[in-house]
Amino acid sequence: MPRAVREQQMLDAAVRIFGQRGFRAASMDEIAELAGVSKPLVYLYLHSKDDLFTACIRREAAALVEAVRNGVEAAAGESADRQLWSGLRAFFTHTAERPDGWAVLHSQARTQGEPFAAEVAAMREEVLAYVTALIAEAAREAHGDPSLPAREVAGLAQALVGAAESLAGWANTDTSVSAREAAATLMNFAWAGLGSLMEGRRWAAHVPG
């Protein structure tokens, strides 16, 4: 079997074990057994448990970013809200279909310290930049110019991405929640508010004095 194919089998097994058991509890013996290879072969190809975990993070992060980009691009030429809707559906579909991969990214890598957390942070920054551009484009569509301040756009992107991450974690614990329902929930929560901003309506706290 070609090395690249064998490595993917090892990564498939590792993502499943890391996602279900956690980085600390997972063993190379378990991963090798699930992959159908010897433990020395896992070490030969992927060197160490840390290196294997890093490879899993990078593969799952790249797959998630690609899924979101493909979702948005599938709605190219449509309005910004339709592009966001398509991207969110792609995100929730991906995380539902690959729950172990999402657990590796969202639960495991972030809690294991450096350098694992840095790998996830890099992926998140890429997604944030993409979502920020979508929101900025929505502002241009609404007003014909980028009327929202850059800082506000960045804050909205942070809020939207954070909400999506939290909602995916919840949806993956309840099999009755479909990817479409999760995306609709976030659109109802976030886009209605964004739509108000695009129309110049803002909520303002009224503080005495």
TrEMBL record:
<dbReference type="GO" id="GO:0003700">
    <property type="term" value="F:DNA-binding transcription factor activity"/>
</dbReference>
<dbReference type="GO" id="GO:0045892">
    <property type="term" value="P:negative regulation of DNA-templated transcription"/>
</dbReference>
<dbReference type="InterPro" id="IPR036271">
    <property type="entry name" value="Tet_transcr_reg_TetR-rel_C_sf"/>
</dbReference>
<keyword id="KW-0238">DNA-binding</keyword>
<dbReference type="GO" id="GO:0000976">
    <property type="term" value="F:transcription cis-regulatory region binding"/>
</dbReference>
<dbReference type="Pfam" id="PF00440">
    <property type="entry name" value="TetR_N"/>
</dbReference>
<dbReference type="InterPro" id="IPR001647">
    <property type="entry name" value="HTH_TetR"/>
</dbReference>
<keyword id="KW-0805">Transcription regulation</keyword>
<feature type="domain" description="HTH tetR-type">
    <location>
        <begin position="4"/>
        <end position="64"/>
    </location>
</feature>
<dbReference type="InterPro" id="IPR054129">
    <property type="entry name" value="DesT_TetR_C"/>
</dbReference>
<feature type="DNA-binding region" description="H-T-H motif">
    <location>
        <begin position="27"/>
        <end position="46"/>
    </location>
</feature>
<dbReference type="InterPro" id="IPR050109">
    <property type="entry name" value="HTH-type_TetR-like_transc_reg"/>
</dbReference>
<dbReference type="Pfam" id="PF21943">
    <property type="entry name" value="TetR_C_46"/>
</dbReference>
<keyword id="KW-0804">Transcription</keyword>
<dbReference type="InterPro" id="IPR009057">
    <property type="entry name" value="Homeodomain-like_sf"/>
</dbReference>
<protein>
    <submittedName>
        <fullName>TetR family transcriptional regulator</fullName>
    </submittedName>
</protein>
